[in-house]
Write a structure and sequence with these properties.
about 300 residues; alpha/beta; Arc Repressor Mutant, subunit A; D-Maltodextrin-Binding Protein, domain 2; 2 domains; two-stranded antiparallel ribbon; 10 helices; about 40% helix; transcription regulation
Length: about 300
Amino acid sequence: MARRLPPLNALRVFEAAARAESFSAAAGELCVTHGAVSRQVGQLEAWLGHPLFERRGRRVVLTAAGRAYLPEISAALDRIALATHEQVRSTRAQIVRVNAPTTFALRWLLPQLSGFQLTHPAVEVRLTTSDEPIEKLGDDCDVAIRGSEQKSTGFVAHEFLSEVRLPVCSPKVLEAHPIRTVADLAQHTLLHSATYPGLWAEWLAASGHAGLAARNAQQLDHFYLTLQAAIDGLGVAMGPTALVALDVQEGRLVFPFDGPALPAWRYCSYVRHARIDDPAIELFLAWLRELGQRFSRSA
């Protein structure tokens, strides 16, 4: 049997106006004009065949019929809103919780993540950062990314990105003091990271200049600070090729040398066996592998 219903928009406007006993307040709540509220209420009253408000100058007051009608309509609209919320919630973005090292997240994952979200708008990636062993992450992490081998009992691991390390600097550093040979580094400041203190010594030894003394050395406590210092022209850093790839593409950094290239991280994703068949996680992992192929470089 077909339901005989008044105009639903008119009901919504009536409910807002009746709650406040004000057409102006309803207009503000619904982002419409005072006249639009008045017309919708008038349409509903005409449909019902009796008034819901008494007009007293610029004020409106509910009639007895309006007072009886308001709680029924409010409850019905509440039920519609709740049912709609549940429908939206059930189809809303599936969440993939990703944990990655801070430098990797800042320098590689975050700059690329908008591409994933545009392609997969129904999947929400929630990113946290740490270097903790994956076993300590608990159930609050769906995908862990690490650049060193982890004990993977209970996890499915996939390598998706490899990189090497090369000296890297801002173009303005080269304008001030060109670097044509390794010996030219003696005129520059070498940037060191406290977390990887031996990189420059290792690279200089591999290049045959183990005894080279730079003009200056500056140490920073985090690797991402070292890379930012290189971008800002403070000196020459040892740059992981994947983590500086976008900066090189966009001209913020350059590689003065093609080699020797020191092996760096081989990044892997780790997912618990129980979660590996989750469709949202599968989409994220497939995206990681495809992107990693474009940025990977081996020594």
